[in-house]
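In this section we walk through a basic example: taking a raw amino acid sequence and producing a predicted 3D structure, encoded as discrete structure tokens. The instruction is simple. Fold the sequence below.
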Amino acid sequence: LQWVFENLAAEHIWLMKVFDEEAKNSVEYILTKDLADAGRPLQYYTATAKALNEKKTELKLSKEDIDNENGVGRFKNSELVSAIYRKVGTTDMWVNYAIASDKALFPEFSYLDWNVSMEQLQAVAKSAINTKISPHTDLATRFARKQAARAQAIVDDELDTFTKLFAVDLPNIEAFKSNIIFSLESKLTDLFINKANTNGDIHLDSQGDGIKRQIWFALMKWTALNVIDAAVTSKKHIWCFDEPETHLYPRAQRDFFQIIQSVSKKNVQSLISTHSTVFIDRADFSKIAKFELDRGYSKFSHCTNTGDIYEALQIRNSDFLFYDKFIVVEGDTEEVLIPHLFKLYCGESLANKGIQIINLGGKDSRVANKKILQELLKDFNKDKENVLYLFDNDATF
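The resulting token sequence is shown next.
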């Protein structure tokens, strides 16, 4: 991670998680400077001192080629790494990175869908509880560190005594050292429920998927409310929801989205993959991105104009995003008449044919609103061939 920090092009660290849907796991990558050999990054910053010195000899690096911070003594590994990469060159590359080793530095990531496992339920419950008990765990951690420091002093004294007692037997050994660490972690091991008309505790793992989903939803709401109420917001979270509208009635969708919006104003960043008009129409249009599969590749598009399209075009976000064919008319009369004539002629409605009608708001607003519409069409890669403009003969645009 030190190498990544030292070679940042800007004040951003780029992390990537690649999900394997079949294996139900993910692999993490970090973007950094490196060089590929046979398609794989060299990763000299993970090499041993012996390997780095061998590479230094191979590249014929002189002392002048290596920056020694202290000016004297042996080169540090980081100094050798920098000199080697200056010699061989670097480019931006994605390399494997186990984020768990530095998880305290980064936001906590959660991928949430309706395929609820016990591990996921426990993780969500733990996240909710940790928000409340963090002052107590922090106090316990500080106490553990103090005790570890005292234990370290005792161990150092014992090893010093050992060295002196057996100096004759170990003539070349000047000292022994050891590090003492007291690790402390709060764990939520089991979840039990009590149900009406039953006796005693019931382990949640024995319940059906329906009950687990209900509890998952309630736990997420509980976590969100705890985050909102929490006084400490230094810990950041990233929540990714995969089609959260599944198994939720429209009212529950609206409630859930309102909670996510409230949480996102605090220390949570939310990413929602959805086909729900409830979510789409309640979101800021500038924060909506569209992904489409095109010949095996994912196409990404989003709005660069942050204006409210409903204010200008009187259409909802979903009216635009969920359609690819449009009839653009000048005013209110055409907006009412065209769908009626279309159904008389074709026997089907515009909606059944996947066509959305857009009203530019009359001649006074026509030019400005047409420009807004064209920007939206461009931002979201809408095919111009599927847009039909119907204006009066005297219209200028």
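Looking at the output, two observations stand out. The mean pLDDT is 79. The chain is about 40% helix and 20% strand. In the next section we compare this with other chains.
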